[in-house]
Amino acid sequence: MNHTETFEQAVSGLVQAGQRIWQQGWCPATSSNFSRRLSENSCAITVSGRDKGHLQAADIMQVDLDGQPLDGKKPSAETLLHTRLYRRDAGIGAVLHTHSLKATLVSMHCGPQITFEGLELLKAFAGQSTHDTRLVIPVFDNSQDIAALAAEVERWMAAHGTGHAYLIRGHGLYTWGSDLPEALRHLEALEFLLDYYWHAVCKPAPKKNMNAMVREERQ
Amino acid sequence: MNHTETFEQAVSGLVQAGQRIWQQGWCPATSSNFSRRLSENSCAITVSGRDKGHLQAADIMQVDLDGQPLDGKKPSAETLLHTRLYRRDAGIGAVLHTHSLKATLVSMHCGPQITFEGLELLKAFAGQSTHDTRLVIPVFDNSQDIAALAAEVERWMAAHGTGHAYLIRGHGLYTWGSDLPEALRHLEALEFLLDYYWHAVCKPAPKKNMNAMVREERQ
Amino acid sequence: MNHTETFEQAVSGLVQAGQRIWQQGWCPATSSNFSRRLSENSCAITVSGRDKGHLQAADIMQVDLDGQPLDGKKPSAETLLHTRLYRRDAGIGAVLHTHSLKATLVSMHCGPQITFEGLELLKAFAGQSTHDTRLVIPVFDNSQDIAALAAEVERWMAAHGTGHAYLIRGHGLYTWGSDLPEALRHLEALEFLLDYYWHAVCKPAPKKNMNAMVREERQ
Amino acid sequence: MNHTETFEQAVSGLVQAGQRIWQQGWCPATSSNFSRRLSENSCAITVSGRDKGHLQAADIMQVDLDGQPLDGKKPSAETLLHTRLYRRDAGIGAVLHTHSLKATLVSMHCGPQITFEGLELLKAFAGQSTHDTRLVIPVFDNSQDIAALAAEVERWMAAHGTGHAYLIRGHGLYTWGSDLPEALRHLEALEFLLDYYWHAVCKPAPKKNMNAMVREERQ
């Protein structure tokens, strides 16, 4: 866990993580937000609306675990989804929210929960020692009411455990770890698994009427 | 808005934007063109035929809002599509035209207009505060008569408003913003949405007769 | 045309072109070869078997237009396909052979010739001023008898003209230009068009019996 | 062969190979492991759990050909799969295990062995001089019992020869060469061939009931 790291250490780690995540194409158009725990009661998190692939130190701020700014900057609207995780589990040291194409496709078209099983990369998740297991990721409906969305996440976790990740429909992925390297490892594993799931398990037929489209083109 | 920036500032911004857009693969084979407003009556725009991913200062020129060169260089044939936008809306500070595979596929095969709805990334567009909205992108037939194409765009915008972007069939995407960072944010959001649309909404069946092809291969 | 450039200029251009082509993923596993004309009777070409994405000066050699080494190094087996083009057309200053996935897929599965039409990127080819045109690319059967393959290419060009490019089935793409930047522009346009063609025109159904496969998996 | 290279040379080569493999996306989430032979009885191999795209010298260790550490570090669980290859064939100087999406898709869904034929890139494999050949890659069931998995590989090789590579179902690819550059060339060729195979030969229909999914979405 990273409870004792300084704000400066948290900033440099988040800046580098952002560059790495950006290079994968998982945070387009200033989407996504990243955070690290600073203490029992606070974390460092990206400021709203910044380019997450090219973060400056000024793009990282401090908030308490109610999501209130400690330095006068404006946090992301989704800050509460990060702080609830830190409050829920003292073992969580970093939270990453990304916005990849595959997370969006799977969350929109592959049902209310995603089950990964039988793949070696499941061993990338903390505590997993075999591929012969299943990982269930819930998909929550998207909402601009973040407090309501956070409460829905809490209800699900109260029933099923914290787990490793969740999807918000048409919005993206949340994952976390005991520290930033573990959260990044979980993120890379999940993006791989979502890509696999889209290609091999769930790829719905296009919804548009192709004959109608061809007619349109003929016009 | 960027009305007061100098030509040197405009050049360095366009060079960097080109590098970033090139790395995404959205300006192959010297396609695409990029511009920024310099004043009420002029803008900086890429010179015709240059490699947009590796621009030099000499690859950027100044034109008035009739698309006439102010420095003797040869502007892109499509300059008029940029200048009409600056003339139409004083709030537009940058225009980006790109040429991605997904923009080409969607513009050729998915009907006369594209509607994006229900996705969080719609919040990347200026003024959008919820995913629960729709964004309509018109698709105009391609033409080498740029004045006629510009007039068709004007007619559409007179009826439907300026909006955020349009596609030209088999040609690519135009988008814009109050400044270059906003235009880049809109571009990244649109490329993501076009990729999503191709994968999940509109992917026509191949048009060739596969049996015929297999016969050809057997020969 | 680049007839007068020195060997040193040719080397530095080919090294940079190789880095750029490698970054696109078009020359895996030491495949591909690149050349530039040095004079009426000679060209610079990559040495057999080198990593084309990380070329050193020593990886470039000089050959005459019969494909014979002028400096004792071992040229690529396919050198004759380059030199025949330089001999055929004094206007050709550079030849690029690449080995992308899309060129391989299209050459194997989309029939004996590929026709691109109606796309703006066709204007990337020298002399093209409109999208309202067609570009035909022949697909030749692969052979390890390069002299025989070169003769087949010659026969086709005698009947249809030199054109801009050809494919070898399961092997890759050949394209050329008056100088290296034009050849690179043609290459980028062709890779884009081949990607488009695979996605939108020709994507054959998998050939394997899926039921048989599922049975295999069940075992 | 590389029997005589020093540990320092082996380390720098493995660090660079890891950067190159990482850039291709073939070692996500600290997966994969890479090794080079040091002597008749030992090799250098990546330490368990490190980020293979950003290796430090401390992330490489020495083991004997029974897979026992020679320097007190903890080797990857799969070390035995590397050392068995070095023991089996004195001509093997490097072994690369990667974990790409395509290797996972093909190993899970395309049957018990993969046959590549008729493609020019088959000439990338040592000793191949024509595309008119076939390369068979066995797919072994995944297991956390590495000794048992190694024994199964041995049995297959005793019957069919060492070959150039094998897949482990849902786990990834193993390939090797007389030295690290040859192993990298084999890896790049195999990733290309697996990508080709997935696109053109074996792409099973999604397994989920799409009507059921659409119903889920409607809810």
Word description of this protein:
- The structure is a homotetramer of 219-residue chains.
- By secondary structure, chain A is of the alpha+beta class.
- The first copy, chain A, is built from 6 helices and 8 strands, in the order H-E-E-E-H-E-H-E-E-H-E-E-H-H.
- In chain A, helix 4 links the parallel strand 6 and strand 7.
- In chain A, helix 3 packs across helix 5.
- The radius of gyration of chain A is 18 Å and the shape is globular.
- The C terminus of chain A is likely disordered.
- At the A-D interface, helix 5 of A face helix 3 and helix 6 of D.
Outline the fold blueprint.
4 copies of one chain form a homotetramer.
Chain A: H1 7-23, E1 33-39, E2 42-46, E3 60-64, H2 79-88, E4 94-98, H3 101-109, E5 113-117, E6 134-140, H4 146-160, E7 165-168, E8 172-177, H5 180-200, H6 210-218
Parallel strand pairs in A: 6-7
Antiparallel strand pairs in A: 1-2, 1-4, 2-3, 4-8, 5-6, 7-8
